[in-house]
Amino acid sequence: MSDMHQLSYRGRGDLRIDQVPTLDPDAGEVRVRVHSVGICMSDIYGVSGRNDRRDVVLGEGDVLVMGHEISGQIEALGSGVAGPPVGTAVAVNPIFGCGACAACLRGDENLCGARTVHGCAPAAPGGFADTIVLPARNVVPLAPGTTPEIGALVEPLSVGFHGVRLAALDAADDVLVIGGGIIGLGAALAAQREVGDRVLVLEPRAERRALAETLGLRTGHPDDLDQLDGAFSVALDCVARPETFAGAVRAVPEGGRVILVGIYSDEIPLPVSMVVWRETRIIGSYGYSHADVVDVAAWVGSGEVDLQPLIQHRVGYDGLIGAFGAYADGSLTAVRTLFQPEFGAATDDPPHQ
């Protein structure tokens, strides 16, 4: 068995590039040769100490391999796996459940009480590696012509898509999206498919507003929230800071819907009087279903929107740990940086504040 490289996390900010044996897939599994993996802020927050979600999963001697926004190519099939065939370009749905509970049986593995996410648990390694082994049901073939880089956007875009699905939009809805990162942009693009130009994205950074506009979206500054009282039937808060949540509640009228897609911290204040007086419906949105991932993979493959501008930086193993540090200290602000095992020196100029 040959060896491969991986980014290993041992807790307390300890990141290392290790050489480890390449795993063969067991029954029902596939091995994917990794092409591109998005660096998610949830991993940055965990490693930098913003929260402890990457440390609490580690037991004595455990190693966590992060990276859950994955695209690649099927390299090997375990016994009993009929496909996709070797060589197929795929995106990865990193969430898998028990397969037997009510949530799993209705297709909501993201709500399974025993769910696991590849890249978020030592027993389910993620994509910051040369290869990843996972259940065959968790790979989604990419449409012909979809590049692997665009394939790596399927997972984060599915998060916003899921929030919009929970909002149950109709064509007459006016939709506010708070946050112009990859999750907010995914939500805005999904809403745009339902209601056209009745979508407004609020984002403080001018360069991200400009990016959203290149995608065909209307934008504004979060300072505008004070003038938007009751102006939207639906607000999707993809930041979930205290001020953005309060603004989202103010932005919808009586009976309006607020969808919480982001998590800034475990607890934030609730503007309870306004919620009660207006009978505001607040809905949490976690991850996505497998059906969501399939739908988003088909949509990105359609080429309806040029998503390439979302990818603003690329690194290989030599630049991966540095990218974690640069995101943590704010010197790297790329909407998406892709890790690519075959990428050489990190020569792209990343966006800086």
List the helices and strands and how they pair.
Elements: E1 3-9, E2 15-21, E3 29-38, H1 41-48, E4 69-77, E5 89-92, E6 95-96, H2 102-105, E7 116-117, E8 131-135, E9 139-141, H3 148-151, H4 154-167, E10 175-178, H5 182-195, E11 199-202, H6 206-214, E12 218-220, E13 234-237, H7 242-251, E14 257-260, H8 272-278, E15 281-284, H9 290-302, E16 311-315, H10 317-329, E17 336-339
Helix pairs in contact: 1-10, 4-5, 4-9
Put the structure in a nutshell.
Helix content is 27%, strand content 23%.
Question: Could you characterize the architecture of this molecule?
Answer:
Helix 6 (206-214) links the parallel strand 11 (199-202) and strand 12 (218-220). It contains ten helices and 17 strands. The N and C termini lie far apart (45 Å). The strands form four sheets. Strands 3, 4, 5, 8, 9, 16 and 17 form a seven-stranded mixed beta sheet that branches. It has a six-stranded parallel beta sheet with strand order 12-11-10-13-14-15, with helices on both faces. It is an alpha/beta fold and 353 residues long. The longest helix is centred in the middle third of the chain and has 14 residues, at 154-167. It has two domains: 3-153 and 307-339, Quinone Oxidoreductase, Chain A, domain 1; 159-284, NAD(P)-binding Rossmann-like Domain (Rossmann fold, 3-Layer(aba) Sandwich).
